[in-house]
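Residues determine shape. Next comes a sample protein:
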Amino acid sequence: MPTRPSRQLETFPNPMPERDYTIRIRVPEFTCLCPKTGQPDFATLHIEYVPDRLCVELKSLKLYVWSYREEGAFHEAVTNAILDDLVAACQPRFMRLTTEFNVRGGIYTTVVAEHRREGWEPPPVVRLP
């Protein structure tokens, strides 16, 4: 197998560190295991962040996400663990992770966790006519 799951998140230099801009990443194939039943849980990850000096490299993100496939985790715990790892890797100005888990027993779960660098404020919203 040419690639394997990995918890190593790689980064690259932000090409425009002087500007606040948003990177949005959608990962529709996240899986982990239910810690109670061992059955697979499927989710879509929505990552939104304002980078500072570093950006997350996407192939390493794919391998990182793959590393959860055989791990048991509650939705709330895995969402916060992923956010913590992403923040540790790239130290963004702002990051939001939304995990939308598929239905299980008639229940959908969505978990939202955020990181905001101390002192960082988003620019004002521009409303166009």
About this structure: The CA atoms of residues 27 and 63 lie 12 Å apart. Helices lie at 58-66, 75-90. The two ends are 54 Å apart (CA to CA).
